[in-house]
Write a structure and sequence with these properties.
Helix content: 40-55%
Number of strands: 12
Largest sheet: 2 strands, antiparallel
Structural class: mainly alpha
Oligomer: single chain
Number of helices: 25
Length: 523
């Protein structure tokens, strides 16, 4: 007998979605990503850290940062120790303790600190053994070096503990059938999915009170969390990873060919896509808006790249302005310079990368890896040939043709954009041929012309909607979807087809069986 999620205590298991009835795929234990780590530290103690600069690169699973496969390295352990020391020092006694030592006494403040700070750091109530161990550490340090030093050492210990650095889900460790996660585990899933950060006090209180055992309780907390600006940061995190534009911070372009390719330009590109996706979310616009919108957000740097007059209505807080795009050139995210730059080579556009992205990240199709003896170096630039002509060899070589016929004809449709996403009419001395084609899809096979034609086709596709829902599941669960998630995935696709906005999609994800249930597996 298990809870139905609607407020009653229990009902028969066969009332669950078909996906859960056949078993919930094992969700791996995930270590905090760099974005999650720095957000968590900030929300926990108010200290800003640059995790991208201080920690090792994240490992992806299912296309999103999960840190769930490769064991943590000795170097990484040292980096976490150094950061824990820095954070505990910078936070200061008042932020860490939250107790009047003079009025309440050291012993009482120490106990409150260990229980309260530990609950927030571990995202659950500490066990009696954990309280005892931490109290022993605290008292040993306090006896030797005083109360303040003991607080800092204890905070360092919390910030290096597996229960802080990882997101374990132990309530289902021995379960042989789908089992509802406990309240704290659901709270943690919710907070890192919707905020890319740790649960706040209200969410932890709801977990402890049992309010997250039902869909109604999850829905109430989710509505509150989606109205918090931290949800916008999580939205950025998803789209940065889904579109691969998180790589722009380290991207390398040929500065001889593209002298404007500066860190400032790439930062502006990321802000454009972030603000655009946020607007779609806040306005409750339907899914196809992501692919076909006639507007975007630019600053003076991007205005120059896009060939648009610098807007006069730039917002002082963001440095960006909403503008209409030339419809014959751009519409939606596939024409954002962020995406186009990330899916290009250092000195030239890349029909392969752009086509591969559409296949894998928008259609959720798998492109096989090339044979080990195949040279994957892109064709060298040749002024006498257009990009289409140089890449034509891929589809004529029997070894390469099978995969490149899936990718190149899609990428050719984006050839009006160079390696930094600038619109062009010519490829060197050659007129651009931006005709393309799709085949091997469920519902959008056929020819198209240019980025607008490609985007319009994809926006109407049930396969694309289904894939977008899958991407959000992967982001939230740290795994690829399984056969048993079919019911959830189809439900998300149908919701997007009905015109639901992104906020409705997120609500459906967090109240789904896939999100709320777990099953036994090694952690």
């Amino acid at each position: 007998m298990i809870d139905d999620g609607l407020g009653t205590s229990s009902i028969a298991a066969d009332s669950l979605c078909e996906s859960t009835r056949s078993g919930v795929p094992y969700a791996p234990m995930r270590r905090l990503s760099r974005v999650e780590y720095q957000n968590t530290v900030h929300d926990l103690v108010g200290v800003a850290v640059d995790a991208n600069a201080e920690l090792e690169a994240d490992e992806s699973l299912g296309g999103f940062h999960a840190n769930a496969v490769t064991p943590i390295t000795r170097r990484a352990i040292g980096l976490y120790a150094d950061l824990a020391n820095q954070v505990a020092t910078d936070a200061g006694l008042d932020r860490l303790v939250g107790c009047d030592v003079q009025a309440e006494g050291e012993a009482q403040c120490a106990e409150r600190f260990i229980r309260d700070f530990g609950r927030r750091a571990f995202r659950r109530t500490l066990s009696d053994d954990e309280v005892a161990d931490m109290t022993e550490l605290f008292e040993a340090k306090r006896t030797r070096d005083g109360f303040e030093a003991a607080v800092r050492l204890s905070a360092e210990a919390f910030l290096q503990a597996p229960s802080f650095l990882y997101r374990p889900e132990l309530s289902t460790a021995t379960a042989q059938q789908p089992t509802l996660l406990d309240g704290f585990e659901i709270a943690t899933r919710l907070s890192y999915f919707l905020w890319s950060s740790t649960p706040d006090a209200e969410l932890l209180d709801a977990a402890e009170a049992g309010a997250l055992a039902t869909r109604t309780g999850i829905r109430e907390q989710t509505l509150r969390m989606l109205n918090d600006e931290r949800s916008l940061a999580a939205l950025d995190n998803f789209h940065n990873q889904w579109l691969h534009i998180d790589r722009l911070s380290n991207i390398d372009k040929d500065r001889t060919l593209y002298p404007e390719a500066s860190p400032e330009l790439f930062a502006a590109m990321q802000r454009e896509t972030a603000m655009f996706a946020r607007s779609v979310f806040v306005e409750g616009a339907p899914f196809e808006t992501l692919l076909t919108a006639s507007y975007t957000y630019i600053d003076p740097v991007l205005a120059s790249l896009y060939g648009i007059e610098t807007p006069t209505n730039i917002d002082a807080a963001t440095g960006m302005a909403r503008v209409e795009l030339p419809p014959e050139q751009r519409s939606g995210i596939l024409t954002h310079a962020s995406f186009l730059s990330a899916q290009a080579n250092a000195g030239q556009s890349s029909p392969i990368l752009r086509g591969k992205f559409v296949r894998e990240r928008m259609l959720c199709q798998i492109i096989p890896l090339p044979p080990s003896d195949v040279d994957v170096t892109p064709p060298a630039a040749d002024p006498s040939l257009s990009t289409r002509e140089r890449f034509k060899a891929h589809t004529e070589d029997a070894t390469c043709a099978g995969c490149h016929r899936l990718m190149d004809p899609i990428g050719f449709g984006l050839e009006h954009f160079d390696a930094i996403g600038r619109y062009r009419e010519k490829d060197g001395q050659h007129d651009i041929d931006a005709s393309g084609s799709l085949f091997g899809t469920e519902d959008v096979d056929g020819d198209f012309d240019g980025a607008g034609g490609l985007s319009e086709r994809l926006a109407q596709s049930a396969e694309v909607r289904r894939c977008y829902g899958k991407q959000w599941l992967r982001f939230g669960l740290g795994r690829k979807e399984g056969v048993s998630d079919r019911c959830t995935v189809e439900s998300l696709s149908e919701q997007l087809a009905s015109g639901a906005g992104l906020n409705d999609l997120l609500m459906s994800v967090v109240t789904s069986d896939a999100f709320r249930y777990g099953q036994g597996g090694e952690q």
